[in-house]
Amino acid sequence: MVDAQIAGRGVRDRAVLEAMRSIPREAFVAARLRDRAYDDTPLSIGTGQTISQPYIVALMLEAAAIGPGDRVLEVGAGSGYAAAVAARLAAHVDAVERHAGLARAAAERLASLGCANVAIHEADGSVGWPAGAPYDAIVVSAAGPDLPAALREQLAVGGRLVMPVGERGWGQRLLKLTRIDAGTFRQEDLGGVVFVPLVGTQGWAPEEGES
Ligand code: SAH
Prior knowledge:
The protein has 211 residues and is α/β, with parallel strands linked by helices. The chain has a single domain, classed as Vaccinia Virus protein VP39 (Rossmann fold). The protein has six helices and nine strands; from the N terminus they run H-H-E-E-H-E-H-E-H-E-E-H-E-E-E. The strands form two sheets. The chain has a seven-stranded mixed beta sheet with strand order 5-4-3-6-7-8-9. Strand 4, helix 5 and strand 5 form a beta-alpha-beta unit. The longest helix is centred in the middle third of the chain and has 13 residues. The chain is globular. The site of S-adenosyl-L-homocysteine (SAH) has 27 residues, from strand 2, helix 4 and strand 4.
């Protein structure tokens, strides 16, 4: 998976490739999907959510330029897969998930894999996780209408925010925002992507019938 789908498509960061190799993606999907765990595709994790495509996880973590001493925030923990990979690169990861069932399952999975430097929090991560700020890197695994002010504020100087922004389901761009100093940010566009919606105070409203 790593050679063909990730290095083969241009991810060069050796630490990211090593971290991707060390985390078994099959441990993050239901038993009936295990034989597809290394396919280059998102897979269902229940409640209408998906574990991200491995290439996209690697691309986002490379863009976030996570170093060994970094404190990282992931918004949209889902299965916990991306958080587990990020935890291999960082000192500590706070990962926020709005669905209680997913948050609980992710926490259990990470504990059973021995990922001790990840804390899963059940909350609306569109406002970040102020208790753990500032962060050297913030990775958002769901697409919002714009870059939330709360997430900009929770970036350390020099910190990187990587997040998909755009309409629900289409026209999304993966953006990288770097905090140059307290009041200056640099924004880059990393290309077109498709993510589930970020639902929350600084994201989208839940759709009718959605919990
Ligand atoms: N990184 C995950 C991908 C999960 S998909 C993985 O590796 O498995 C995106 C997740 O974002 C979904 O689980 C969804 O419930 C969650 N999400 C959406 N809006 C959120 C919000 N405001 N706060 C926290 N999580 C949110």
